[in-house]
Amino acid sequence: MRLFNSIKVHGLKALSFKTLLTITLISSPFVAQAQTLTVMAAASMTDAMTEAARVYEQKTATHIRLSFASSSVLARQLAAGAPADLYISANEQWMDWLEEQQLLAPGTRKDLLSNALVVIAPESSPLSSFTLTQETPLLHYLGEDQRLAMGDPSHVPAGIYAKQGLENLKLWSNLEPHLARADNVRAALALVERGETPLGIVYRTDAQVAQHTKILATFPAHSHTPITYPVALMKDHDSAESQALLKWLSSSEAGTIFARFGFGQADSAP
């Protein structure tokens, strides 16, 4: 009987230790797997979204994986099956396109941010700031055999907005043969930063973070459709974690971060 009791006690001790070890391992931060969310966002959001993701990661146990490119490139990747939880476009067109293909999580789409369009030049340029009107001699400002850097208007949102603005200002037909068409707005910014083109058209937010450029003029708001950044969760990625991130991106805390990089709320000008 004493032997049986001894075995029973040692068995309970072993069981208790095993149970305690299991609980400890499950609760250990080194064993727990942090949730990872993938965000695909327009290239113009690179700095702002990187900072927003950093702050969000510090607040939660969620890791944010970021992918930046032209809204059109990202939309096509998503349509081809690229995995992502959340998509932020620099215009409504590419979000509409994904929605038409039923690739968005129903009821999650909303307008997040706004932006403005500006004309920039290298900081060493002799040009001074001006008001952009139908009378502005942009072609003359380019100089002989020089080009105007902007996103490719066939698919890049910043280029689409720029074409609209230039057409409404009656400047497009003269400037079109002198374009340096970039794959995204950051590529257009880089051409001006490196002095490869004397002028460029980018978002105000891009100009704000640029190191070696200056803003010469802002496009009149009425010259192009409002620059809006819609956001949505992707189909089958409508998890509690992704919903929490989407909600936070619309919060005042995130809005303060975006404002620091020059973005405005979706229903207001920046």
Automatic annotation (TrEMBL):
<feature type="binding site">
    <location>
        <position position="203"/>
    </location>
    <ligand>
        <name>molybdate</name>
    </ligand>
</feature>
<feature type="binding site">
    <location>
        <position position="158"/>
    </location>
    <ligand>
        <name>molybdate</name>
    </ligand>
</feature>
<feature type="binding site">
    <location>
        <position position="185"/>
    </location>
    <ligand>
        <name>molybdate</name>
    </ligand>
</feature>
<comment type="subunit">
    <text>The complex is composed of two ATP-binding proteins (ModC), two transmembrane proteins (ModB) and a solute-binding protein (ModA).</text>
</comment>
<feature type="binding site">
    <location>
        <position position="71"/>
    </location>
    <ligand>
        <name>molybdate</name>
    </ligand>
</feature>
<dbReference type="GO" id="GO:1901359">
    <property type="term" value="F:tungstate binding"/>
</dbReference>
<comment type="similarity">
    <text>Belongs to the bacterial solute-binding protein ModA family.</text>
</comment>
<keyword id="KW-0732">Signal</keyword>
<dbReference type="InterPro" id="IPR005950">
    <property type="entry name" value="ModA"/>
</dbReference>
<dbReference type="GO" id="GO:0030973">
    <property type="term" value="F:molybdate ion binding"/>
</dbReference>
<keyword id="KW-0500">Molybdenum</keyword>
<dbReference type="GO" id="GO:0046872">
    <property type="term" value="F:metal ion binding"/>
</dbReference>
<dbReference type="InterPro" id="IPR050682">
    <property type="entry name" value="ModA/WtpA"/>
</dbReference>
<dbReference type="GO" id="GO:0015689">
    <property type="term" value="P:molybdate ion transport"/>
</dbReference>
<keyword id="KW-0479">Metal-binding</keyword>
<dbReference type="Pfam" id="PF13531">
    <property type="entry name" value="SBP_bac_11"/>
</dbReference>
<feature type="binding site">
    <location>
        <position position="44"/>
    </location>
    <ligand>
        <name>molybdate</name>
    </ligand>
</feature>
<protein>
    <submittedName>
        <fullName>Molybdate ABC transporter substrate-binding protein</fullName>
    </submittedName>
</protein>
<dbReference type="GO" id="GO:0030288">
    <property type="term" value="C:outer membrane-bounded periplasmic space"/>
</dbReference>
<feature type="signal peptide">
    <location>
        <begin position="1"/>
        <end position="34"/>
    </location>
</feature>
